[in-house]
Here is the input.
Amino acid sequence: MVTDRFEELGVVPVVVLNNADDALPLARALVRGGLPCAEVTFRTDAAEESIRRMHEAYPEMVIAAGTVLTTENVDRAVAAGASIIVSPGFDPEIVDYCLSKGIEVCPGIMTPSEMAQGVKRGLTRLKFFPAEAGGGVPMIQAMCAAYTSVRIMPTGGINQKNLAQYLSCDKIFCCGGSWMVKDALIREGRFDRIEEMTREAVTLVRQIRQG
Here is the structure.
């Protein structure tokens, strides 16, 4: 499963690309920095082409398509090279469509009712979004106490300062974060800095997990 690879890495960079020409230098920075993965959000016109270029140049990368809001986007993302579909909320139509096609999906949830919908469909890995605004680790622990088979990928408001709090929770298998791939760094072409911050994130994950 793709989520197993995410768990190994600990952090998944959440990327917004407005220009597909930034896809390759960004992918290079992430791979060199030690995080050969990304969640490319489908909120821009450049997303599909960005996924395609990243996948073709770096087939070892695990690429998720994020902010997927329609079944059409599911098809486009997978055709471009995405290995998993991630959505901000629990959309039954998208989840059921992915499951019917054998496409791995990690839908967003923020309530026990939404978690129950995932469990009902046999899902054991779910996204919690927006993590910090939605109650953070205490909320995740409270919900997972009732649904013990589920593990969570929190995204939204996670950074270097609170990463340890999240990854130290045994109900969390990885975290989504954008602090190492900020929009400004991409726009300014500071891919050397992105590589540096990615490497720092990898080191931080290792330190947290080693206790």
